Amino acid sequence: MVKRLNDAILEVVSCIVNSDDYQQCLKLKKMMDQNEEILSLINEIKVLQKKYICCLDDSIQEKLKLLEERLFQIPLYAIYLKHLEVVNQKIDYVKDELNDYFYHVLNDGISEFE
Predict the structure, then answer these.
(1) What are phi and psi of 112, to 5 degrees?
(2) Considering only CA atoms, which of 62, 72, 75 is closest in space to residue 41?
(3) Residue 106: is its pLDDT beyond 60?
(4) Which of 7, 59, 79, 80 is deepest in the core (most CB within 10 A)?
(5) What is the value of pTM for the model shown?
(6) CB atoms closer than 10 angstroms to residue 97
């Protein structure tokens, strides 16, 4: 039973990893790692987020909003986010299905792997 469960999980992971959206994320992430504008904006945003958490200053929040808007306007980043959203939806779907499956196994005694 454990081997079948492990094989099924590996198959799901393989489907996600081999999906076009995941592969595009990897490719676009590599390209973004070479883009100084994107890297600079992301670093500025991280610094401001840390500052904002410490003092909850509205002026910092406004700066964050402006930097995020600039970042989202960069086509490379926007396309990356679209692919990442699809990948995350797939992962969430699998997580929800596994949670539902284990809930029923533990509460109803139903097992598809028996």
Answers:
(1) -80, -15
(2) 72
(3) yes
(4) 80
(5) 0.81
(6) 11
